[in-house]
Write a structure and sequence with these properties.
The chain has about 110 residues and is an alpha/beta fold. It has a single domain, classed as Peptidase S8/S53 domain (Rossmann fold), CATH 3.40.50. It has helices at about 15-20, 35-50, 85-95, and strands at about 5-10, 25, 65-70, 105. The radius of gyration is 13 Å and the shape is globular.
Length: about 110
């Protein structure tokens, strides 16, 4: 199974559970809040664009992938994220899945 690290905003579990065949592995603490609406919409959109089930109205690009979710961009609730933060999250994803033969990062 291909592992894909999604480094983006948080996602809405109520929407994702209807579209994704399995929940992403959550590797961060941020969730959707009233002040994270833009980041939440974007994170939810990206996860479902990539991972929506094959039988969904609009199937995802990789419905059989395992998704590792890192919420990095959380609107008013986050510090400004820079290239170092992004690189750290990518390294964490690789370390987490280093036993896998295939992995990629999308963010």
């Amino acid at each position: 199974m291909l592992s894909v690290a999604v480094i983006d905003g948080p996602y809405n579990p109520a929407v994702a559970e209807r579209l994704l065949p399995r929940p992403p592995v959550q590797l961060g603490e941020a969730g959707c809040t009233p002040t994270s609406q833009n980041a939440c919409r974007h994170g939810t959109f990206i996860l479902t664009l990539l991972g929506a089930a094959a039988d969904a109205e609009f199937p995802g690009l990789c419905p059989d992938c395992k998704f590792l979710h890192f919420p990095l961009f959380v609107d008013n609730d986050s510090l400004e994220a820079g290239a170092v933060d992004l690189a750290d999250k990518a390294r964490s994803a690789v370390r987490r899945e280093d036993h896998q033969s295939e992995s990629c990062t999308v963010g």
